[in-house]
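Task: sequence design from structure.
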């Protein structure tokens, strides 16, 4: 993918197989019996203002040289359409990250710094990551308010990743929310994983005991909280299985906000999930998110304009 501005200045982003690395080996059947296949990871080559850098793609599957050449050629098989869409999405996101650095207006622009520093921070561009990042922030704020009230200490910060599922050790009939929260926040037996599904589950669990969490839960439709669950289903159902190819099934990995603003995500959601009420709830939640988070709102606006 290539981006050209009105002055003819270019950002070039292209995926390739890194055949310099040691391959993974796989076996494929053919007319003569079995054939050993060498598989390589996908990397990205980026060029801006004469500067060149390479980095490992977020796409996790390995491919043979023949298959990847076929994917990048004319009339690729439908089996590989999820990968082709993901490659386009990743190239689009990388270009947006570079454009945010204003490379053609900044004489000190450094491509290595701009790309490698930003590559692992994509909340505004991936739909599920944007929503999860926003919800984590909202939940963090609620628990901070609760913890401040309990401890009477404005400097106390309770991170959501340090709050574990300890509610079951308490009396569910307890009406003393302060004691419940204090005890739960003190039981740091393990670190809560980064999983967004865990955050949603924790909110549903604590909403039965803590009014502030219950208010937050009720602020958004259930399907908005469950967006990650739906996208995981869409990832698993998006691929087309064919044992003749390696891998035999290619699934979508990256769902972007650009797909949301163009209506592509809605079409995929209805094809795989088929729940119009859930989709309407997600729309309501995203609209509220855009009103409350200016950074994510700007990313959605940019996606509409490009």
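Answer:
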């Amino acid at each position: 993918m290539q981006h050209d501005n009105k002055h003819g200045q270019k950002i070039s982003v292209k995926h390739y197989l890194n055949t310099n690395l040691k391959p993974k080996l796989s076996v494929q059947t053919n007319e003569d019996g079995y054939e050993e296949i060498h598989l390589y990871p996908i990397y990205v080559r980026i060029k801006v203002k004469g500067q060149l850098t390479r980095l490992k793609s977020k796409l996790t599957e390995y491919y043979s040289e023949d298959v990847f050449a076929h994917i990048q050629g004319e009339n690729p098989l439908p089996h590989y359409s999820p990968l082709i869409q993901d490659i386009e999405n990743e190239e689009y996101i990388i270009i947006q990250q570079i454009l945010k650095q204003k490379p053609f207006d900044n004489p000190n622009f450094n491509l290595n710094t701009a790309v490698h520093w930003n590559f692992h921070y994509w909340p505004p561009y991936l739909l599920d990551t944007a929503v999860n990042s926003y919800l984590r922030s909202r939940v963090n704020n609620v628990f901070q308010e609760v913890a401040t009230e309990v401890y009477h200490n404005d400097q106390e910060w309770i991170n959501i990743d340090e709050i574990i599922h300890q509610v079951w050790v308490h009396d569910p009939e307890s009406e003393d929310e302060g004691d419940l929260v204090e005890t739960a926040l003190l039981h740091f037996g393990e670190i809560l994983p980064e999983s967004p599904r865990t955050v949603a589950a924790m909110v549903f669990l604590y909403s039965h005991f803590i009014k502030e969490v219950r208010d937050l839960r009720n602020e958004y439709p259930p399907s908005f909280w469950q967006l990650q669950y739906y996208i995981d289903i869409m990832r698993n159902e998006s691929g087309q299985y064919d044992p003749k190819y390696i891998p035999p099934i290619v699934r979508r990995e990256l769902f972007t906000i650009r797909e949301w603003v163009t209506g592509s995500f809605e079409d995929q959601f209805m094809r795989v999930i088929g729940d119009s009420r859930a989709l309407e709830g997600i729309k309501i939640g995203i609209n509220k998110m855009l009103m409350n988070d200016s950074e994510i709102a700007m990313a959605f606006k940019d996606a509409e304009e490009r």
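The first helix runs from residue 65 to 71.
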